[in-house]
Amino acid sequence: MHYKIYLLLFAVLLGGTFSEECHVTAEKTNLVKFISDAPIEEFEGVTDQIDGYLYWEGDRLTEKSDLYFEVDLNTLDTGIGLRNRHMRENYLETEKYPLASFKGKIIKSEKAGENTFKVMVQGTMSIHGVDRLMSAEGIIQKNGDIYRIQSHFDVKLSHYNIEIPSIMFYKIDETMRLVLDFHVKKIEEKTEANNR
Amino acid sequence: MKTIVFILVSLIFSLTLSQAQVRWKKKKVERPVDLLLFHSTQVVNLPTTEVLNKGEFQFEISHRFLPPIDAKKTLLGLDGPAYMRLALGYVPVKNVAVTFGRSNNQDNYDLRIKYKFLQWANATVPLTAAVRAGAAWNTEVTDRETSDPKNFQYYGQLVLNTLLFKKLGIGLVPSYLYNSHIYCDKTQYSFTMGSYVQFYISPMWSLLVEANNTISGWRNQYDSYTFGIELETGGHFFKIFLTNAAALNPSQFLAGADLKNQWRLGFNITRVLTF
């Protein structure tokens, strides 16, 4: 009889620590956009090439939260080939630093509607070989196994040692606005049993 | 005692297993990369293998000031007169550019097409190749009807490019021009070997030298030589140079230069346009 109680306790301990892991979907609807809003000319760089994961345990997104997202900067398209080339070779130096990434965790989460959560993430943004701590707000919407993640925040180019030549006909703003709108999909639910 | 030990072991086991074990793996995606050896679609008069992106336009305005820089009272030749060219290029499909231009030298209209057909991504000596073909119509020829077949010229070029040390662009452009001397009764041809080097000092500045030597057939008085600088600013290229050739449109340029040991100023400005 005692052993039945022990087994039940064991099962409860295991069952209480389930985890969820979601991977970025390979959808063309994913969007990473940076906006340069210089006085003379506004332009955007757009890509759908974002990858990474969102992980948490338990019922709350903040519990043992871990997230990592990376963007392939070689795929950013500003609409003009020559400008893409300038951006890759002269500013982002994508041969050396092909990815922009963010690694961190969800530190705050509050329900903002049915299946919608307003979250705050904190972590390290890596661009152009420079790591900087930052935090940003975002919205996570659950729709079945799919979570839509939306966020926008500003990035100062000088913080990442990105220099802009003084003679430029494409004026680039020192502050870029990054807009993210992409989807992650829950992969097979991981339990302790799966871990074994 | 056994109970306590069992619970402790269960707790430790449970906590250990509940550590994040992310299964996401980085994907290795091999994307075909377009080799971009030269920055501009042409050096001065000779083409590079570069083609703009599909759907993009390129507007060009070029001048050749006819007086040489040592001519008196012309401010380095800038007082003119000058030959000028206006052109508009378009890329209807990937790696194919169509350009229509006009020069006021014999009111020459020029329609040409360039196709980049080879990219060899070797780390030491990358290579790209393109072909260019065009037809020109000289519409203001003395004592001749505009529609006279002798006013038409045709040409074909093979363009080979490489880039050494990511700084030194080198190009060869063997060219054939049909009806190179439009005033000659017997149809003339010219086979020339164009060549150029361009040294990229920085992302914006480069030095360039260009030559076009006639190998066989008819030639205007001299082979063509040009040297100058290029300033690249986003979608613009500014090229300022000294040259012994006055002609701008390809059918006229391939026929040779008019100055010997003298130089005239010239410039090309191109701008990429999207709509």
What composes the largest sheet of chain A?
A: 8 strands, antiparallel, barrel
The whole-number mean of residue pLDDT values of chain A reads 83
CATH architecture descriptor text of chain B: Beta Barrel
- The helix content of chain B, as a percent range, equals under 10%
Task: Give the SSE layout.
The complex is a heterodimer of chains A (196) and B (275).
Chain A (H helix, E strand, L loop, with lengths): L1 H14 L3 E6 L6 E7 L4 E6 L2 E8 L8 E7 L8 H12 L6 E15 L2 E12 L2 E14 L2 E11 L18 E12 L5 H4 L1
Antiparallel strand pairs in A: 1-4, 1-10, 2-3, 2-10, 4-5, 5-6, 6-7, 7-8, 8-9, 9-10
Chain B lengths: L1 H16 L39 E9 L16 E12 L2 E8 L4 E13 L6 E12 L13 E13 L3 E11 L10 E12 L4 E13 L6 E10 L2 E8 L6 H4 L10 E10 L2
Structural features, described:
- Chain B: This is DUF5777 domain-containing protein.
- The complex is a heterodimer of chains A (196) and B (275).
- Chain A has 196 residues and is of the alpha+beta class.
- Chain A has one domain (2-195): Lipocalin, CATH 2.40.128.110.
- Helices cover 15% and strands 50% of the residues of chain A.
- Chain A is built from three helices and ten strands; from the N terminus they run αβββββαβββββα.
- Chain A has an eight-stranded antiparallel beta barrel.
- The longest helix of chain A has 14 residues, at 2-15.
- Chain A starts with a helix and ends with a helix.
- Residues 191-196 of chain A have low confidence and may be disordered.
- Chain B has one domain (34-273): Porin (Beta Barrel), CATH 2.40.160.40.
- The termini of chain B are far apart.
- At the A-B interface, α1, β1, β4, β5 and α2 of A face α1 of B.
